[in-house]
Amino acid sequence: MPVSNDDIANTISAYLDVYPTDTEAFAALLETARGSEAPLASRATTPGHVTCGAVVVTPDRRVLQIRHRRLERWLLPGGHIEPEDDSLLATAMRELAEEAGISGGSVSPVLERPVDLHAHVIPANPIKVEPEHTHYDFRFLVAVDQAVATSPNEEEVSDFRWIPLLELPGQLGGRVRATLLTRKLPDPARRSP
What we know:
There is one protein chain. This protein is α+β, with helices and mostly antiparallel strands. The protein is 27% helix and 27% strand. It is built from four helices and eight strands. The chain has helices spanning 5-18, 23-35, 88-100, 170-182; strands at 48-57, 62-68, 73-75, 78-80, 107-109, 116-122, 133-144, 157-164. The strands form two sheets. Strands 1, 4, 5, 6 and 7 form a five-stranded mixed sheet that branches. A hairpin with a 4-residue loop joins β2 and β3 (73-75). The protein is globular and about 45 Å long. The two termini are 21 Å apart. The model has no long low-confidence stretch (mean pLDDT 91).
């Protein structure tokens, strides 16, 4: 079943239960998810829609970044929700596999809810006939047993790197570090099939 506005609203609510200081920043998105017919999981919904990303952490506390070809910036692996995605976490895992070649079977979620929500403006793309719009990025923290060799999707990704967790900036870096102080990383090798 595709991701619905109710799924998005429930995820935002669970996130805000943990991070109530973000309530003001995401109140309008929560209200839209609860009251709008516009599917927030669709990339066609403007002026904004939901995307999902993966914060991939190794036991030695390194984080995967990809170099986004069109935006020419280092980002986390992630992207748009597709109709076949049955959850927001599933979207993040599919995007990780597509962009970095890391399959869902080699990672384990640290949390079932996002570790961070982030809103950022995406410039207009005349080639895709997309106006400037906002991505509401739901970032999921996942563990991988080692900095595995990745095979980036060369259409979207020009490079990748593993940076020390201490170099992950801002609110995201702080939340990931705080989470990992209170939780042990799951061992992806011991996941049940």
